[in-house]
Write a structure and sequence with these properties.
The chain has 403 residues and is an alpha/beta fold. It has twelve helices and 18 strands. The strands form three sheets. The protein has an eight-stranded mixed sheet, with helices on both faces. Strand 9, helix 5 and strand 10 form a beta-alpha-beta unit. Helix 1 packs across helix 10, helix 2 runs parallel beside helix 3 and helix 6 crosses helix 7.
Length: 403
């Protein structure tokens, strides 16, 4: 699976999009499983290995956003292999991942984090839910551990405290990429989103980034399943641009309603290109939508992305977030002991490295992850759809303001 276009056949109709969730309503109440990944002993030294270092991984592996969690975990495993040259050992210590399912429930995530810290874990990574990430960030500061957030996009994670970093992008970078698609320097923008931390964060980001525009919002209850009336409200508002930020299994119904009510014919629509399973739900001809993009496998052209593609069965939207998290873990543990949190923080601050998306930098001042973003087109082809790269925006172009 190489370079500019990646074809995806439509073989099933389960849909999730963008990173959201309130982080307070669990999608399941079942007990979350614990998984330990034992590293491969490929070291060539005769020196005996030290005690394993356990890394807590709290992410969503059940419910509406479980595919995001699965993408993240696949990237995490491949990233650890890449960053350690296949040994899965850092400074003579094997690295083990202890995976817990947060089920998009912030309380469950904190319970898992408390248990992990009680077992001696000093590094926790993950979560796709913005509300969950904010709770884990607060937990990290209270317990003085290192926390690296995953695909959760809320801007509020950046600069929240010294203990918290992120391996993915944030809403500001999404909106700044969308701004590059605008034809005019002023007008009206309607943010159509769910009434969640993710949706509210996108309203704030659009308002801040597009300061020359009049920004309005249409926020929908997360549990809503009927969208015809909302599509009609969009048509009545008649904005110059509709910016859609959505998460969860209702994405297909939402996009179908916008299609059926002629929203694409009446105004410009911009949104993030979701993971490949969502592509059929943009309609039979998605050419009327302007797509910003965090990642698809054919966008970057570099050796690290080649490694990811060759070592992950199905790389997708949030696979790089896990990969980068592993790179950050190895960086921190290469420069400091696992029990020296301050030294690990120092090792990460200001670090520039080659990632699957290209060159990335962890901004020292607030831990924003400065990274490339993409503009893409989704083309209908026989049997499915394929993404086509139109432009790459370097990290400095979409960088959020310092917090």
């Amino acid at each position: 699976m190489k370079r500019a276009r990646i074809a995806v056949l439509v073989v099933f109709a389960v849909v999730v999009t963008a990173c959201g969730g309130n982080g307070t309503d669990a999608t399941t109440t079942s007990a979350a499983p614990t998984t330990t990944t034992t590293p491969q002993d490929t070291t060539t030294t005769s020196e005996a290995l030290g005690e394993p270092i356990k890394i807590g991984v709290i992410t969503t592996t059940s419910g509406a956003l479980q595919t995001y969690g699965q993408q993240y975990l696949a990237g995490l495993e491949a990233g650890l292999d890449y960053a350690t040259d296949g040994t899965r050992v850092v400074n003579n210590h094997p690295i083990e991942f202890v995976v817990r399912d947060d089920a998009l429930d912030a309380d469950a995530a904190v319970t898992h984090a408390t248990e992990l810290v009680g077992d001696g874990v000093s590094i926790i990574v993950g979560t796709v839910g913005s509300g969950v990430a904010l709770r884990l960030a607060a937990f990290a500061e209270e317990n003085n551990i290192l926390y690296i957030s995953g695909p959760a996009a809320t801007d509020a994670v950046t600069g929240v405290n010294k203990n918290t970093f992120r391996s993915g992008r944030q809403s500001w970078q999404d909106v700044a990429t969308a701004a590059s698609l605008l034809r005019n320097e002023s007008g009206t923008v309607l943010v159509f989103a769910q009434d969640t931390a993710f949706g509210q964060g996108n309203v704030a980001a659009v308002t801040a980034v597009l300061s020359n525009f009049t920004v309005e919002s249409l926020l929908v209850p997360e549990a809503e399943t009927e969208f015809t009336g909302y599509a009609n409200q969009i048509n009545q508002a008649n904005p110059d641009l509709v910016f859609v930020a959505w998460a969860g299994a209702t994405s297909g119904a939402m996009w179908s309603a916008l299609n059926q009510q002629g929203v694409f014919d009446n105004t410009e629509v911009a949104t993030g290109l979701g993971d490949s399973v969502t592509w059929p739900f943009y309609g039979e001809d998605p050419s009327g939508i302007n797509f910003l993009n965090h990642y698809f496998p054919g966008a970057p052209d570099n050796a690290v992305n080649d490694y990811l593609i060759d070592n992950v069965d199905t790389p997708d939207l949030f696979t790089p977030d896990g990969f980068v998290a592993a790179q950050m873990i190895v960086r921190a543990l290469s420069e400091a002991d696992a029990d020296d949190v301050d030294a690990m923080i120092t090792a990460l601050e200001g670090w520039t490295f080659d990632a699957p998306k290209g060159s990335q930098t962890i901004r020292a001042a607030d831990h924003a992850m400065i990274q490339p973003m993409f503009v893409v087109r989704l083309n209908a082809v026989t049997g499915g759809f394929e993404a086509e790269l139109l432009a790459t925006l370097e990290g400095n172009v979409t960088a959020p303001p310092e917090q």
